[in-house]
Amino acid sequence: MGVTDPAGPVMDRDEVDRALARLGAEHEAIETSLLALQDHAGRRLLEGAELTGTTRERWTAAEASITLLWAYFDAYTDALRSAREIRARRRWSSREDLEKLTELLRGESVTVAGSATATANAPTLLSAAGRLSERFSLAALVDRMNELYATSLDMVVTADAVWSALPARIDLLAAELQRTRKLAHSVGVRPGEHPAGDDLERITRTLTRLRADVVSDPLAFWVPAQGSSAPGGGRPDTTVYDREARALEEVRREIDAVLTVRQDAEARLIRLRDVLSRADRTLAEARTARGEVLAKIAATEVPVVSGPPTALQEQLATAAEYRRGAQWHRLSPLLESLEQKAEDELLRARESLTAVTAPLAVRAELRGRLDAYKAKVARHGLAEDPFLTERYDAARRMLWSAPCDLRVAEQAVLRYQQSVAEALGAPRVPRQGGPEDRRGE
């Protein structure tokens, strides 16, 4: 839409012809814009929709503005036709004709009969509310039409943009939601029985409500662009949609995990039984080893070995029952918990075995050290040395007797090492604690 020149003195024929040509072009542009607005898909949707909230309020005002637009355009058309008729009377217009044309083209010569109700509903025309008619110059009339057209088009374009973007996306997400619900039902994920089932119900309710709100009040889901004055400047507000899409994706991942459980549940149960069986065997070995330690090692604190955990076996039986009953949504978290507990139990059993057999390991180390020094003595030709032989035999009797006092046996091995070191002229072996025995020195 265009803007006419300001008023001036009496126009000559050339000025009149130029003004009529300009006004004719403006008239054609205005008519094209109004017809495009009339045929706009968004306007047709607004006319047929049951609107609520902000959209209903703004559409009431926009309808009034569009009604006024056509009234103003008709008055503009009549004024332009009158001016063309006056100019067409004579090839060379008289002074009187030029004065009339100047008044028509530049003065407040256009009278528009106003509707008080329609004008009151148009937010840009509150100052004119209640008037039976208004007078405009053609330039002021174009400005008024530009203003009404911009606000009306903005409202129509905004509503159409929201309707074009959000409902289709909501429908696609709703279709995906229905597929996910069927899949969830097939694996036992149902409302009231599994959190994911409750989430699916909540997402369904939210999407249903969101679609209804978008259809009835699209302007409530619009974020205007900062600093933009163009009609429809901004974007649809997809905050709620995006949140529910993320929630559905999380549910879908959880259901995928349940499906994975259904596929490999038997293999995981077999592995669980194997881990728990190894833990039981290790504990049994630890109990046997404890009896051996108590019989062979004296004056030693040997930790008590607990029995196999019956709770894990009971949970394993429950997991097997869930698998037989296809209760995959319950089996999934139980298997994850059992796998961690079974590994912990196997580690505890191994630690028990290590703690119980520690005295036997110490005795074995002392025996190995004693035999290593005896071999060293033989290599140096001192195998027949009576003093060394005596100390070796004393240490050996202690290590191979039952029960064996490890503290005393360790001192005997240390004395033998010290004697060997002195016989070979090596530095003294440092003592490792315990009472000093100077017999035979």
Give the strand tally.
6
The largest sheet has its strands arranged as: 1-2
Q: What structural class do the secondary elements suggest?
A: mainly alpha
Give the H and E element order: HHHHEHEHHEEHEHHHHEH
Instruction: Estimate the helix proportion, in percent.
Output: over 70%
Poorly predicted ranges:
1-7, 124-130, 432-441
Mean pLDDT: 82
Percent strand equals under 5%
Q: What is the CA-atom radius of gyration, in angstroms?
A: 50 Å
**Integer tally of domains:** 4
Annotation field: number of helices: 13
State the distance separating the first and last CA atoms. Answer: 123 Å
Oligomer: single chain
Rough outline: rod-shaped
Main pleated sheet:
2 strands, antiparallel
Supply the key terms.
13 helices, two-stranded antiparallel sheet, disordered C terminus, mainly alpha, 6 strands, two-stranded antiparallel ribbon, disordered N terminus, 441 residues, 4 domains
Can you walk through the features of this model?
The protein has a two-stranded antiparallel sheet. It has a two-stranded antiparallel sheet with strand order 3-4. A two-stranded parallel ribbon has the order 5-6. With 441 residues, the protein is mainly alpha-helical. The radius of gyration is 50 Å and the shape is rod-shaped. The termini are far apart. Helices cover 71% and strands 4% of the residues. The chain contains 13 helices and six strands. Helix 2 (41-48) packs across helix 6. It has four domains: 13-156; 162-223 and 234-259; 261-356, no CATH class; 360-423. It has helices at residues 13-38, 41-48, 53-88, 95-106, 116-121, 138-186, 195-216, 239-296, 310-324, 328-356, 358-379, 386-399, 406-423; strands at 110-113, 133-136, 222-224, 234-236, 297-298, 404-405.
